[in-house]
């Protein structure tokens, strides 16, 4: 897998599929924008992991279109906790964001 450190906001592309994004070196909050789901993005997936105690937010370009734990119409999911992972993937119709660290602190925004 490709591991890529990000220190600024960005929008995911199909070419990012399979990558692990860290926030190593980041000194501010970072937002990862998910484009509107489409057939071209079906199967796109990536992971995030917090390496520094800064907010990493995964958000959709269109509100109420993110599916996450306990919420089928979320706007974003974020964490600032070092070591917390998120797994994100698109099925062509929706984006899913899974908090994957047991005991981690995540916030769902609706």
Overall geometry: globular
What is the terminal-to-terminal distance?
31 Å
> Stretches where pLDDT falls below 50 for ≥5 residues?
none
Structural class: mainly beta
What does the largest sheet look like? 7 strands, mixed
Helical residue percent band? under 10%
Counted by DSSP, the helix tally is 0
**Sheet with the most strands: spatial strand order:** 1-3-5-10-11-7-8
Overall mean pLDDT: 96
Describe the 3D structure:
The model has no long low-confidence stretch (mean pLDDT 96). It contains no helices and twelve strands. It has strands at 3-5, 10-11, 20-22, 30-34, 45-49, 56-60, 66-68, 71-74, 76-79, 85-90, 95-99, 107-109. It is globular and about 35 Å long. The protein has a seven-stranded mixed sheet with strand order 1-3-5-10-11-7-8, with no helix packed on it. It starts with a strand and ends with a strand. It is an all-beta fold and 110 residues long.
């Amino acid at each position: 897998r490709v591991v890529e450190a990000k220190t600024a906001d960005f929008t995911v592309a199909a070419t990012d599929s399979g990558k692990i994004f860290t926030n190593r070196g980041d000194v501010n909050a970072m937002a990862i924008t998910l484009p509107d789901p489409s057939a071209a993005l079906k199967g796109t997936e990536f992971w995030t992991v917090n390496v520094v105690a800064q907010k990493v937010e995964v958000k959709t370009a269109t509100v109420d279109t993110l599916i996450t734990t306990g919420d089928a119409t979320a706007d974003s999911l974020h964490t600032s906790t070092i070591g917390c992972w998120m797994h994100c993937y698109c099925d062509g119709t929706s984006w899913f964001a899974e908090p994957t660290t047991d005991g981690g602190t995540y916030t769902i925004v609706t």
